[in-house]
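Case study B.
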Amino acid sequence: MTGSPPSLRVSELAYAYPDGTQALFGVDLAIGKGERVALLGPNGAGKTTLVMHLNGILTAGHGSVEVAGLPVRKDTLAEIRRRVGLVFQDPDDQLFMPTVREDVAFGPANLGVRGPELELRVREALDQVGLPDVIDRPPHHLSFGQRRRVAVATVLAMRPEILVLDEPSSNLDPASRRELAEVLRSLDVTVLMVTHDLPYALELCERSLILSGGVIAADGPTRDLLADGDLLAAHRLELPYGFVVHQRPY
Amino acid sequence: MGAGHHHQLYRPGNTVVHRLPPQCKIPAVAAFAVVVVATPREAFWAFGVYAVLLGAVAAVARVPARFMLRRMVVEVPFVLFALALPVIGLGERVEVLGLSLSAEGLWAAWNILAKATLGVMASILLAATTEPRMILLGAQRLRLPPLLVQIAMFMLRYMDVILDEMRRMRVARESRGFVARDVRQLPILAKSAGALFIRSYERGERVHLAMLSRGYTGSMPLMHDVSTPVTSWATAAILPAAALATAVLSWGVS
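Model:
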């Protein structure tokens, strides 16, 4: 893996919304190929704004974003959007086609994939999320947990370099939550998981970043960050009641 | 999620009519409707023939008469309008069951009723034998304006989501003691409708972002490039062709 550029590199990224509200004040981070990283932060920390920069929906006011060495610019947008698989929080926003098959095919079809290769991509992606049987169902007939996993499949079908999940565990019941965790663990792809569900981050990600006040306030092993009560409290993050994380003894 | 009881118009089956590609059925129904409208209203027998033709299609598609009748309720407003015509119509009057009616109005009413009924029946048959999404795929293949097809497609997809949202808002209103009794409650309902509109609009924006994220550039990728066999066109043409023959005869007679 030495020599290949990191899956994601964000340098000095700053952004203000058109109304003048500054959301990001210089974000620096790098995520290596194959890493699973959690981006933690309270509501309003700028998490969603940062995510919108990763595939060029928002363009940097200052600083840069690179995906596997390719800078996010107007002329690279098509390739960037193939490389960055964004999974939105509400699967009803993500699944807009009449059937699961067409929805999973939408991304690769936009890349020009057709015929048997397209069908193969669709089946492969649905297999990866453990839902090969729902292929002909309309998305709104699936359970919420299934819809979230199909949403993951819709971006896996584009064979992304990095999977970016916005609050993947929100609204899931414990079983769906575990099933999604199993799927994410089984994937051979770089993952950036944006969440304030700290136990989920601990379960899935070795490393975490804390985004607070528009900057990266901490970067380290998830277990160490979560064991530091003062750090969490300073950034409005809290473990659920009765949940204690012990620092690994080094 | 209110799933399961939508697409009430569609009646699953595996008949010749069901299997015909949608891009053949849509023009067939449209052509049939045009022929019916072009038939002179005096040719009573021709309308009988059209009804028999539709009956034959229904029989082949195994669509029962009761199913058809229930769905023809959509026509009721037109029927009411047609029934009013003889009463309010001008010109020569005729006595029918002791009522003085306008002859011209009677003709107009018959004209509207007969033609609308046949058109509605044909559309119901199309909808009963074609899944809504297939109708849209057909429209896409017929090169209807892609933007219109996409709008219809999203309506189909998000209808349930929006209805569900509406239902949740109603439950939330009623849980706090709201009862819609009379007009004084209208402002509350109007505000709910406004909130629903804004939510749907915002959802539209999020869906658009999700589409952009997966490489959408303004047109839907055509995923199934299925050509239409000539035999399908020929089969679909039977109905409008038979109707056209009838119409030509009726022009000759009148």
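The mean pLDDT of chain A is 92. The remaining cases will be described in the next quarterly update.
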